[in-house]
Design goal:
Layout lengths: L12 H24 L5 H22 L8 E4 L2 E4 L1 H24 L5 H8 L1 H13 L6 H18 L1 H7 L4 H23 L5 H16 L15 H29 L1 H5 L1 H16 L6 H18 L3 H14 L3 H6 L1
Antiparallel strand pairs: 1-2
Helix pairs in contact: 1-10, 1-12, 2-3, 2-9, 2-10, 3-8, 3-9, 4-6, 5-6, 5-8, 6-12, 6-13, 9-10, 12-13
């Protein structure tokens, strides 16, 4: 069955605020993960944050008077998975399970800087997938802006990271590339999902991810007696912020502006992570961080700036709707 999608509207100040909140939570997650890894295995962190996020979102959903839709529906006398749950499970598996395991696994064999550069592939994957599967147009301006953002991330990480790519484990690098592709695919799934309220959709997505990820705990040594209070609170923080609240904001932003705009967060998030590292762990800010900031922000501006003819049409439309607009502007 064909599905018609509305074209993403031009981002408003509210949309930029949502993007900034997603960036802040995503960038802060690196510091929380860094603290949790001191006494907890990566799988326990991944599963723990998913369950905390799922419980938190369920409470928020029920407080708003919402409920999950039924899991199955009867069609032609047979029980079938409801489309809404199919969407939530697909987004949960692709965006919250496999990437959560692939990134920690890959970072055992490659430098964190190289992992950060691979994360910058996510907006590029999203741009291509959104064009083919979500009807989002790809303009020359958008391509240039996304390329500038990618270059900015490379500047942030430093040229030595690229040199080390040739000597790093190729399987791990392939895993990082797959993880970013899955992140991108999850945003497209969310864009094409059945119409469900954001809080219900986010709760279902994270709950699906938690259920799918939990069996992984059977194959590792949890060593729970070694967990510190600080690590446990870090996982709780990861679940409430970067996993729970961020899931709602991401769904809202994708539906308001499209997958391409939301994916820009992956260019800005490394900058925020560097800033948080400097503030919390007293890590030194190198000059390339400020150069990268300028390049990335310029790329974001180029990617989101509407062509001149569209701005002219918007101005004309506004003036035609409000004949007194131009007069009041001159007064």
């Amino acid at each position: 069955m064909a599905v018609n999608f509305k074209s993403p509207k031009e981002a408003t100040l509210y949309d930029w605020m949502l993007l900034a909140m997603i960036v802040a939570m995503g960038g802060s997650s690196f510091a929380l993960i860094h603290n949790a890894l001191e006494s907890m295995p990566p799988a326990a962190i991944a599963v723990g944050r998913l369950w905390v996020g799922a419980i938190f979102l369920y409470i928020i959903m029920r407080h708003a008077g919402r409920r999950f839709p039924p899991l199955f529906q009867r069609i032609d006398g047979r029980l079938r998975l409801r489309r809404s749950w199919g969407s939530m499970i697909a987004v949960g598996a692709s965006g919250y399970v496999l990437p959560f395991f692939l990134f920690p696994w890959a970072q055992q064999y490659v430098e964190s800087g190289l992992a950060g550069i691979y994360m910058a592939f996510m907006p590029i994957w999203t741009l291509a997938l959104a064009f083919f599967f979500a009807g989002e147009p790809v303009s020359r301006r958008k391509l240039v802006g996304f390329a500038m953002g990618f270059v900015g991330v490379i500047i942030l990480m430093g040229p030595e990271v690229l040199k080390g790519a040739a000597h790093s484990d190729m399987r791990a690098q392939a895993g990082l590339l797959l993880a970013t592709f899955l992140y991108a695919a999850s945003t497209i799934y969310a864009r094409r999902a059945a119409p469900i309220r954001p809080r219900v959709f986010a709760a279902g997505v994270v709950l699906s991810g938690a259920v799918i990820a939990t069996p992984a705990l059977l194959f590792i040594d949890l060593a729970s007696s070694q967990w510190t209070t600080s690590a446990i609170f870090s996982v709780i923080g990861l679940g409430i912020g970067p996993t729970g609240l961020a899931a709602v904001l991401i769904i809202m932003l994708i539906r308001r502006t499209g997958a391409g705009f939301m994916s820009l967060a992956n260019y800005v998030t490394p900058l925020w992570a560097v800033a948080v590292g400097a503030l919390i762990f007293s890590e030194r800010l190198e000059p390339n961080a400020f150069i990268a900031l300028a390049v990335i922000l310029a790329g974001v501006a180029v990617a989101q700036r509407a062509p001149k003819w569209q701005r002219s049409m918007k101005t004309a439309a506004t003036t035609s709707e409000d004949p007194g607009a131009s007069m009041s502007a001159e007064d």
